[in-house]
What we know:
38% of the residues lie in helices and 14% in strands. With 406 residues, it is of the alpha/beta class. The longest helix is centred in the middle third of the chain and has 21 residues, at 257-277.
Amino acid sequence: MESKTSDNLQDLQYFGEYGGVNPSISDSSTYTFLSAKKMFDTFEGNTEGCYLYTRHSSPSNLYLGEALAAMEGTEAANVTASGMGAITAVIMQLCNTDDHVVSSRTIYGGTYAFMKNFLKKFNIGTSFVDITNLEVVEKAITPKTKMIYCEAVSNPLLEIADIKALSQLAKKHGIPLVVDNTFSPLTITPARLGADIVIHSLTKFINGSSDCVAGVICGTKEFCLSLKDVHSGAGMLLGSTLDSLRAASILKNMRTLHIRVKKHSENTQYLAENFEKDGLRVVYPGLKSHKDHEKLKSFMNKEFGYGGLMTIDMGSLEKANALMEMMQERKLGYLAVSLGFYKTLFSAPGTSTSSEIPLEEQKEMGLSSGLVRFSIGLDNDIHRTYRVMRECMVALDILKSDTTMV
């Protein structure tokens, strides 16, 4: 699928207050009005281009929102102080007491915990389903269902959602499809495939430097304005406001996103192919052995590759932990959660980012205790990385020493 998302980002051009090549940073919490009537009209939502209070909006946040909307091909975008700030605002905007959500069962642990443990305070139910089985998804929809929620590439099992088919199903039942695209910026453009709302944790690939947390909600202008409504907007009233300085920093980092995504994908493809040849159980959408490889290939933006995430099953939690500790000692990366950093990050999801999911449910969805999730970095010599990783695996008897190195 051809996409001009990187061109849209390249074509954005802002001038700073004094002609600077970077837009000026709005370092104010509140904004003045020349008339009391204009303030009143702004509170009522009857003005365009007026800033009221930074929790509502600010120029710096607006610039970043425009860039993200251009990237995802949506009418508008609202930025938030974290990925969870984006996710929770969307759910609370769309759902009322006694409503229902149909969600993928393989999602980020924080999202799972919010849906399963927090929403019940409002008697909002969630059905967690195999999002790749459309028949199961449709059976879970009830008259009270207010959305279908999924991740474009699931965390941590790297399953691929059929966004086109899910969109058709959502439209059939008159409900929105909400897609978290954190794992696959530029590679997948969910809105062009029919998603109504697209969410990102900007903390990850989009910012790329692991120095802040932030999120975004991309959608129609109407929906984004509803989130900022001073009387009923979940974004406004829940208060997940991104700091203007951070918004400006993320906007500058976005300028290299297309280069970084390509390198993350290139490096991950190399490691996945070679460790699979070594006989390890590797899951990566760029491998022909991945069950959703052809599905993703049919709608991805091919120039950006298959992404920077892969998993390898080490057979046991003990071996997984030992490998990660040794890799960190060998300076291959960090034993840390998150993704999209310039160095490789690795963690065992079952005891970290997916630990909110009960063990029996982890087993049911195929999340083994020995699974290690790798966010592969921007290493210049990826063969060197492969060689040192392999040495660690041989030392821990994950790979046999007599296995021929690729």
